[in-house]
């Protein structure tokens, strides 16, 4: 099977991650591939092979090159990390068995409540994610 080319953007910026998850990320096209100009530490260009039938999806990556865009300049944020974790959990709500979803909603409730308390700078994103969870018919604690 011929491998497609892809880019992997390395970031810990919750706004970049959220924009990507909600499919409203603005990016340029360089050499036929998406490339972000800010909010990422490096861009990895790779050959990518999608493995069909796996849920969640799995990919095999063969790196071609890495472009370093800058050094990490900010302090670690527990709230930002929790929010990124919550977004990953959000993507799993509709694919996991019902009993696992109940446990996941408890984790999400804790993470989102904690994010609002310790990272008020992303409160707008947290509240939007909460609304999206509820709009899908799930109940947060």
Strand content: 15-25%
The whole-angstrom Rg is 17 Å
Helix and strand content put the structural class at alpha+beta
Helix run count: 4
Q: Shape from CA axes?
A: globular
Order of helices and strands: EHEEEEHHH
Protein name: DUF447 family protein
Domain DUF447: 77-120
Short account of what is shown:
With 141 residues, this protein is α+β, with helices and mostly antiparallel strands. It has helices spanning 14-21, 78-92, 98-118, 123-135, and strands at 4-10, 28-30, 33-35, 42-51, 58-68.
Verbal overview:
The chain is of the alpha+beta class and 141 residues long. The protein has 2 domains: 4-68, no CATH class; 78-135, no CATH class. 40% of the residues lie in helices and 24% in strands. The chain is built from 4 helices and 5 strands, in the order E-H-E-E-E-E-H-H-H. The protein has helices spanning 14-21, 78-92, 98-118, 123-135, and strands at residues 4-10, 28-30, 33-35, 42-51, 58-68. A 3-stranded antiparallel β-sheet has the order 1-4-5, with no helix packed on it. Strands 2-3 form a two-stranded antiparallel ribbon. Strand 4 and strand 5 (58-68) form a beta hairpin. The mean pLDDT is 89.
Tags for this entry?
DUF447 family protein, two-stranded antiparallel sheet, alpha+beta, 141 residues, 2 domains, three-stranded antiparallel sheet
């Amino acid at each position: 099977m011929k491998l497609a080319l892809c880019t992997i953007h390395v970031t810990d910026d919750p706004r970049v991650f959220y924009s990507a998850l909600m499919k409203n990320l603005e990016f340029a096209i360089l050499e036929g591939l998406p490339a972000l100009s800010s909010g990422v530490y490096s861009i990895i260009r790779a050959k990518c092979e999608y493995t069909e039938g796996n849920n969640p999806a799995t990919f095999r990556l063969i790196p071609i090159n890495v472009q370093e865009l800058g050094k990490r300049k900010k302090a670690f944020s527990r709230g930002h990390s929790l929010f990124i974790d919550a977004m990953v959990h959000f993507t799993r709500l509709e694919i996991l068995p019902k009993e696992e979803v109940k446990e996941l909603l408890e984790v999400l409730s804790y993470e989102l409540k904690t994010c609002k308390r310790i990272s008020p700078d992303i409160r707008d994103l947290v509240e939007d994610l909460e609304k999206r969870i509820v709009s899908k018919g799930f109940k947060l604690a």
